[in-house]
From TrEMBL:
The chain crosses the membrane at residues 196-217, 276-301, 321-345. Residues 377-615 form the ABC transporter domain. The lineage of its organism: Eukaryota, Viridiplantae, Chlorophyta, core chlorophytes, Trebouxiophyceae. One of its GO terms (cellular component) is mitochondrial inner membrane. The keyword Ribosomal protein does not apply. SMART domains: AAA. It is found in: Mitochondrion inner membrane. GO terms for biological process: oligopeptide export from mitochondrion. It is a multi-pass membrane protein. This is Transporter associated with antigen processing 2 isoform 1. One of its GO terms (molecular function) is ATP hydrolysis activity. Keywords: ATP-binding, Membrane, Nucleotide-binding, Transmembrane, Transmembrane helix, Transport. Residues 52-341 form the ABC transmembrane type-1 domain.
Length: 631
């Protein structure tokens, strides 16, 4: 019986993340299902020369290894012949000669093993580097909607765990497999040369051993795949808890989170235990079969020695060869089963590598220059539903025109679609119908980097990177690097310079993960500086609500007013002063622009806006006086 589904925190299908990805993209899923061993090994294609060189030294090392039993057999025969009355001098001379051979073979074998290890391991590291960077690039190419559906823990797990598993198989396992195959073949050849009769007996045991391994690999592949998926879910829970530790603490939900994590891990444990049980059955059966065969061979060999059909030295050499062959056959099968298991991890990685993003960021090439003012925004008959909720239309034929340099304030009831409009202008999503245009050019036709150097977003809860304040501000610079003067100039406009200088490390102060070491107002001002340094033509603002105290709200507002001057601005307005200062107020309701005009015009019209103001549904969160004459 599989474990019960996770508790509330993770309620739903335990395979949800995996299935989401799979059902999300049937084509990629298909491609994922068809992952073949050749595709897995294809990852090592660029390493063909190091691997070829590694294989060569590996063969040399294997040949050296296989020579040892022969030397051991020779030594035993010399000793036996001496016991039977041979000359001690001759025996000593022969043992000395054998000793020289042993030392030479040891030196060759050690050098070859060292070289082999370096060549294969370094190739494996490079394969993993390439695989991870390719996978990261593939993930970064995906549209924002993809991230709405997949949890980050799932993706980071694939980047770390799955790629590590594939790396080992794609290179080192080739080395082990080749080495074992070489030792097996050479060992078998030597066994044949020593006694074809005994060798035939050994060969009889190989088909059942192989069948056993094949069965084991098939079953364990499924377990490994499930275990990786379960472990990804556990990582997701851990990541979510760690990044929301303040929420967890404030609700005293440590116990519940612990239970969620345990539940997620329990599934990992469940498949881990099944793997362990499988191994507990498989390995004793395999070992008994192999050891039983060896003992029968020894028994028969002893009879051959007694009948003088074989020397004791030859039997010793044969037994050592048989042990070599058995051990390496075991290793070969181990590699085979880990390849089969890695195909499970490969499916998941290749599924992501193959996934075609719904938005092609490289398709846009245009850089509209527009009139000198620039920054004309048009939303034309836009219909939009979020990809994670297809069919639930958020915008239904919405049209909006913002002239260059104009300021439009979006107001309306919660959930009406204001933030969605901003997300479409940022091209986080593309509308299903209709279009969004900047300076007359549809956004998908505009060069991605250019678009985002012209449009800046300052949200209510900006997220900063875990770096210094200077680095966070410079992040906004289109070229990627900014001078200290530029950074400081932007910080001054954003009202951030003074508080930054009050920190002992000034601009080099680290802000912590997502900016956790700064206050809400400070974070927002750093985010404003990050937008200012970009010198955008279009500004998208989500105004701060009462989350800030009066002083920092004033500082933030002043900074926003400065940065807005002379630019096209779309602001999600929460304050009366903002709507009053806007050229146009657009009331977003039910996915459409219900009304548009100046604050005064709309109040006088006595429509939706007037009703919302009257019912205090707008500006309720700020301590501004209610507008006059609305009743
Ligand atoms: N990423 C998303 N995936 C699915 N649905 C979403 C997503 N973001 C928002 N929605 C849904 O889209 C609708 C419009 O949301 P939106 O955030 O645009 O409203 P809003 O007018 O900005 O609201 P508020 O004033 O409360 O911020 C809501 O029903 C919301 O649940």
């Amino acid at each position: 019986m599989p474990p019960r589904g996770p508790p509330p925190f993770l309620r739903g299908d335990p395979n949800r993340d995996y299935q989401l990805l799979a059902s999300d993209d049937a084509e990629a899923q298909q491609a994922g299902k068809q992952v073949s061993a050749s595709r897995l090994f294809g990852l090592a294609r660029q390493e063909v020369w190091p691997l070829a060189a590694g294989s060569l030294v590996l063969l040399i090392g294997a040949a050296a290894q296989v020579y040892f039993p022969k030397l051991a057999g020779d030594l035993i025969d010399v000793a036996i012949q001496h016991e039977a009355g041979g000359s001690p001098k001759e025996a000593r001379r022969r043992t000395s000669a054998i000793l020289v051979q042993i030392l030479a073979v040891l030196a060759i074998s050690a050098t070859a093993d060292g070289l082999r290890s370096w060549l294969f391991q370094s190739a494996a590291e490079r394969v993993m580097f390439r695989l991870r960077t390719r996978l990261f690039a593939a993930l970064l190419r995906q549209e924002v909607g993809f991230y709405d559906r997949v949890r980050t823990g799932e993706l980071t797990n694939r980047l770390s765990e799955d790629t590590r598993m594939i790396k080992t198989v794609a290179t080192s396992s080739i080395a082990s497999a080749l080495r074992s195959a070489a030792i097996c073949s050479l060992g078998l050849a030597m066994m044949f040369a020593t006694s074809w009769l005994l060798t035939s007996l050994v060969l009889c045991a190989i088909p059942p051993l192989f069948a056993l391994f094949w069965l084991f690999a098939r079953i364990s592949r499924r377990f490994v795949k499930e275990q990786l998926a379960a472990s990804a879910r556990a990582t997701t829970v851990a990541e979510e808890v760690f990044s929301n530790v303040r929420t967890v603490r404030s609700f005293a939900k440590e116990g519940a989170m612990q239970a969620s994590y345990e539940q997620a891990q329990r599934r990992t444990l469940y498949f881990g235990l099944r793997s362990a049980a499988l191994e507990a059955v498989f390995f004793p059966v395999h070992t008994s079969l192999a050891t039983g065969t060896m003992m029968i061979v020894l028994w028969w060999g002893a009879r051959l020695v007694i009948d003088s059909r074989m020397s004791a030295g030859a039997l010793s050499a044969f037994v050592v060869y048989a042990v070599y062959v058995a051990a390496n056959f075991g290793m070969l099968m181990g590699v085979f089963s880990s390849v089969v298991q890695a195909l499970g991890a490969g499916e998941r990685v290749f599924q992501l590598l193959d996934r075609q993003p719904a938005q092609d960021l490289s398709s846009g090439t245009q850089r509209p220059q527009g009139s000198p003012a620039g920054g004309e925004l048009v939303l034309r008959d836009v219909h939009f539903a979020y990809p994670s909720r297809p069919g639930a239309w958020v915008l239904r034929g919405l049209s909006l025109h913002v002239a260059p340099g104009n300021k439009v304030a979006l107001v309306g009831p919660s959930g009406g679609g204001k933030s969605t409009i901003v997300a479409l202008i940022e091209r986080f999503y593309d509308p299903q119908r209709g279009s969004v245009l900047l300076d007359g050019v549809p956004l998908p036709s505009i060069d991605h980097v250019y678009l985002h150097s012209q449009v800046a977003l300052v949200s209510q809860e900006p997220v900063l990177f875990a770096a210094s304040i200077a680095d966070n501000i410079a992040f906004g610079c289109p070229g990627g690097s900014a001078s200290q003067e530029q950074i400081e100039a932007a910080a001054r406009i954003a009202n951030a310079h003074d508080f930054i200088c009050s920190f002992p490390q000034g601009y080099q102060t680290l802000v912590g993960e997502r900016g956790v070491r700064l206050s809400g107002g400070q974070k927002q001002r750093v985010a404003i500086a990050r937008a200012i340094i970009m010198q955008p033509r279009v500004l998208l603002l989500d105004e701060a609500t009462s989350a800030l105290d009066a002083e920092s709200e004033h500082m933030v507002q002043e900074a926003l007013d400065r940065i807005a001057a002379g630019r096209t601005v779309v602001v999600i307005a929460h304050r009366l002063s903002t709507v009053q200062a806007a050229d146009t107020v657009a009331v977003v309701e039910g996915g459409c622009i219900a009304e548009q005009g100046s604050h005064q015009q709309l109040l006088e019209a006595g429509g939706v806006y007037a009703a919302l103001v009257r019912r205090q549904l707008l500006f309720a969160s700020v301590s501004q006086p209610a507008p006059q004459g609305t009743d």
